[in-house]
Amino acid sequence: RAAEDISQIAANIENEANIETLITAKGFDDCVAVISESSANIVVRTSGLMPNEIIQIKEIVYEQAGILPSHVKIIEKQS
Question: Which parts of the chain fold into alpha helices (H)?
C-alpha cells in the first residue's frame, strides 16, 4: 500500500510540473498546479481569464492528468 501511495504521489508531481510548464507556455506569467486524487486546483497569474483560456487550461489538465474539466478549479491571482 505504501508503495502504491508513493507511486501516485510521484505521478502527481510529474503531472503538476507538466501542467505548469504547458500553461506558462501558453503565455501566462506564473502557474501553480496542485493535484489531489481526482481533482486539480490551478492558480494562474492573470489580469482576467478569457473563456477560451479557461478551456485551454482545463484541456491541458485533462490531457496530462486525466482529470475531468468539471473537477478543475482555476484560481486567478491578479497581476
Answer: 2-25, 51-65
**Sign of the Cα pseudo-torsion (38, 27, 22, 14, in order):** negative
pTM of the model: 0.92
| Amino acid identity, position 65 | A
DSSP secondary structure letter of residue 37: T
Helix (H) or strand (E) holding 34: strand 31-36
14-27 per-position pLDDT tens digit: 999 999 999 999 99
As given in the structure block, the three cell numbers for residue 71 are 473537477
**Alpha carbon distances (Å) from 63 to 18, 22, 48, 51, 79:** 10, 11, 24, 18, 27
What is the C-alpha to C-alpha distance for residues 78 and 63, in angstroms, rounded to an integer? 26
Q: Kindly report, residue by residue over 32-66, the tens digit of the pLDDT.
A: 999 998 999 999 999 999 999 999 999 999 999 99
